[in-house]
Amino acid sequence: MSQAPTAPAAVTKNEILKTQIPTLAGNIAATLHDPNADRFSEDDEQFIKFHGIYQQDDRDLRKTGKKYMVMIRGRIPGGVMTSAQWITFDDLATQYGNNTLRLTTRQSIQFHGVLKSGLGPLVKRINESMLSTLAACGDVNRNVTASPTPSTSIAREEVYKDSVKVALALAPVTKAYHSIWVDGVQLNLDDPENKNFVDPLYGQTYLPRKFKTSFVVPPVNDMDIYTNDLGFIAVIENNELIGYNLAVGGGLGRSHGNEQTYPRLADVVGFFRREHLIEVSKAVLTIHRDFGDRTNRRHARLKYVVEERGTEWITAEINRRTGGVLSGVRRFEFTTTGDLYGWHRAVDGKLFLTLFVETGRIKDVPGHTMKTALRQVAEKFGHIEFRISANQNIILANVPESDRAGITALLAQHGVRVDNQASILHAASMACPSLPTCGLGLAESERWLPGMIDRIEKLGGEIGLGGEEIIIRSTGCPNGCARPYMAEIAFVGKGPGRYQLWLGGNASGTRLNRVYKEVVKDPEIEAELRPLLTRWKNDRLPGERFGDFAARVIWPEIAAAQAAAAEAAAAAKAAAAAVPAATA
Ligand code: SRM
Ligand code: SF4
């Protein structure tokens, strides 16, 4: 019997919006200049994302009425800024934002709490400083990230240059961005040139979803490279960057209670020579463009294409699109994901200083005026570079030996230390912003994790642990912005004061963790962790980290418990089915 053909699933509203206004101009400029409009329309909320802007409201104030504001995210390839650019960003945060700079897990900076009136001048000044916000968000290639640490290899600078090339090659070319933010005028949407605009790379409907690209220099996996849609793992021979191992199909976003969504690590599919970098980048991006699911945004990331069609398929497709540039994967190894805190010497003889920034939030608080300190460093030592790490920290790079003492002293005046900057657990932690700015947050994260870590440290002291690193991360929801699924211990928000507990990531960022408890209430976290940490202390192999212990010992226990539960459920079902209908 032949089946009736099913109608193809409808594309999402975002797809229709992109087709209607392929320049992505929306009605943004008109709203920007309308003094009576306190917010962007629902449609424009989608368009402004492509310009690096999110409409938000202060969730702490919701009870007293919704107060609209925007978050603006910079596009800063490789997280590298000049001192002058840092000063501009610092000024803008003070003048238009909430007087903080939020370093992100993708080497960028976010401004929070900006009112619509400040948005235009802020974005214009970012552009005048030769940086941008275009494509910091939206269904396009996002900020291209690259290992920031200057010490590992001379080739790191070449890797950085490549990341800038890829950022340029994968940038959308709409003239709406310049028109709105630099010229301050609304594009005429009826002009056929705008109406029928087709981006040469993205087409009219861009990508089905966001797309993330990163470069890493082994053995340091400070980018969590496997969590990207497109990852380049530098292959260096005799101090020369000869090419990259290519990783495709990573991503972390998931939704609670939806098994169809899951975190996935990228597959390393082959090696290619450096001269093919742009072709390979475009090949992977256009595979996402052509095969990603445009009918369901929760299923639209490249990772689902790779998972469902298979690694062999995508390798063949990349080869088809590039004329066969991929060859066998070259050997590499990752050992750590963390940043090198304090002063270090780079291979070129210059110094760099990595400063720990708790949850990425640069601000002034009594006794620790880090925002002012960094601004003064930028003013006084204008020749140095500011680099944002993907671990939400800041690196002062290209520092001559002669400036070391001056920078250390200036920072000290503001309570910013260069040695012993934070306890080992704080130094290895990350949290996403969540409340009060993130509209998707279900539980506290940035405002909560530092206190939670203090509590875990106290617990560790009681158990007799101490001085050992555990990578701990939290997010306010399952989207994965602080890459919780790579942590040794992760708290993933489920509701106010309630977290899912994940265990078992590793130090080299090569293993996803697993759910240990579906829900733990905040006050019960110590009780949950105490037996786990005690068992780690007593039963671990020599030198075994907590995440490795969890994967070796706790995971099989979880699997056994799940199997037993499934067996009991099946038995109960069978027993119920066996009861005669009359007595049921
Ligand atoms: Fe994210 C959405 C913050 C890195 C996965 N992310 C958001 C939004 C914009 C909420 C929203 O859509 O309304 C958050 C803004 C909160 C706020 O108030 O600032 C937000 N994400 C962040 C940042 C700031 C977290 C941080 O602690 O630094 C990071 C900004 C990076 C940047 O500069 O571009 C950030 N987000 C990530 C990462 C980590 C990474 O890329 O290395 C992930 C997981 C990796 C991935 O993409 O799979 C991530 N963010 C998401 C998702 C889930 C995507 C998915 O595939 O399901 C969302 C929700 C969405 O897109 O619908 C999201
Ligand atoms: Fe918001 Fe969730 Fe991302 Fe946290 S993980 S910033 S709560 S979207």
Going across the major beta sheet, what is the strand order?
A: 1-2-5-4-13
- Major sheet: 5 strands, antiparallel
The hetero molecules present are: siroheme, iron/sulfur cluster
Mean pLDDT level: 95
Supply the helix-strand structural class. Answer: alpha+beta
Rg estimate, integer Å: 25 Å
* Assembly state of the chains shown: single chain
Low-pLDDT regions: none
The helicity comes to 25-40%
The CA-CA distance between the termini, in Å, is 37 Å
* Spatial shape: globular
Strand percentage: 15-25%
User: How many helical stretches?
Assistant: 17
Number of strands: 22
What is the topological layout?
Layout: H1 13-20, H2 28-32, H3 42-50, E1 53-57, E2 68-73, E3 80-82, H4 83-96, E4 101-103, E5 109-114, H5 116-128, E6 145-146, H6 156-169, H7 176-183, H8 192-195, E7 213-216, E8 230-237, E9 240-248, E10 267-273, H9 277-291, H10 302-309, H11 311-322, E11 342-345, E12 351-355, E13 361-362, E14 364-365, E15 368-369, H12 370-380, E16 385-388, E17 394-399, H13 404-413, H14 424-427, E18 429-431, H15 449-463, E19 472-475, E20 489-495, E21 498-503, E22 514-521, H16 525-539, H17 546-578
Helix pairs in contact: 4-5, 4-12, 6-9, 9-11, 12-13, 15-16
Bound molecules: siroheme and iron/sulfur cluster (SF4).
Word description of this protein:
This protein is of the alpha+beta class and 584 residues long. It has 17 helices and 22 strands. Strands 1-2-5-4-13 form a 5-stranded antiparallel sheet. A 5-stranded antiparallel sheet has the order 3-16-17-12-11. A hairpin with a 5-residue loop joins strand 16 and strand 17. Helix 4 packs antiparallel against helix 12 (370-380), helix 9 (277-291) crosses helix 11 (311-322) and helix 15 (449-463) crosses helix 16 (525-539). The longest helix has 33 residues, at 546-578. It is globular and about 70 Å long. The chain starts with 12 loop residues before the first helix and ends in a 6-residue tail after the last helix. The model has no long low-confidence stretch (mean pLDDT 95). Siroheme binds next to strand 2.
